[in-house]
Write a structure and sequence with these properties.
Blueprint: H1 2-45, H2 51-88, H3 94-146, H4 194-201
Length: about 200
């Protein structure tokens, strides 16, 4: 009875160990794929603004790709290692140990580089928003100074009513001057009535 319990306990422990290792590798695979998707999204929306940024993006993508390749190779190597254990009773696999170290190391390197990229993008976005807000404040200040310029002229007694038609005298036609060859027109002398003057003398 005790021996049966020990066998069941050993079987449960082995199954839990295999499940934990497989879940660990699946988590690395999922997180690395998500990191690649996040980087591609940042590249399509934000873009690369410098050569240092391009190197940083490239190194991060390479790290996640190495992690993906290592995990996929681990899944394939696990079946081969189990077959060797069943057939030849081998103790361990140096390739699997190397792949585990490479997968974990490349994932952590990609995570650190992704954090640096995220901080850089956040700082750049903050600076851009501050510059935009300062530009908007300058434009608003200019509008408040220029839009209602001269509003004090609308005060009673401050309006200059002679300024609206200033220069209207220029529309008056200029006086005509006679040319030198043209004689001025003279009116004929009024006739003197002779009969009336004679009657008055008599």
């Amino acid at each position: 009875m005790e021996q049966e319990k020990e066998v069941q306990f050993y079987s449960a422990a082995v199954n839990a160990w295999f499940g934990t290792r497989i879940e660990h590798d699946r988590s690395l695979l999922t997180l690395a794929a998500g990191g690649i998707g996040l980087l591609l999204t940042l590249l399509s929306t934000v873009g690369v603004r410098s050569s240092e940024g391009a190197v940083l993006y490239s190194a991060t993508l390479l790290s996640f790709l190495i992690c993906l390749g290592s995990v996929l190779w681990i899944f394939r190597r696990n079946s081969t290692h189990l077959q060797e254990i069943i057939k030849n009773n081998v103790a361990g696999d140096a390739i699997l140990r190397t792949l585990d170290a490479v997968a974990i190391g490349s994932f952590f390197l990609g995570a650190i580089l992704s954090s640096i990229i995220g901080i850089t993008v956040a700082v750049h976005s903050l600076h851009s928003s501050e510059e935009n807000m300062s530009g908007e404040n300058k434009s608003i200040g200019g509008l408040t100074q220029d839009s209602f310029d001269g509003v004090t002229n609308l005060r009673p007694g401050a309006t200059d009513m002679t300024k609206s038609f200033e220069g209207a005298t220029a529309l008056r036609p200029a006086p005509t001057t006679p040319s030198p060859t043209q004689q001025p027109a003279t009116l004929p002398d009024a006739p003197v009535p002779t009969s009336q003057s004679t009657t008055d003398q008599k």
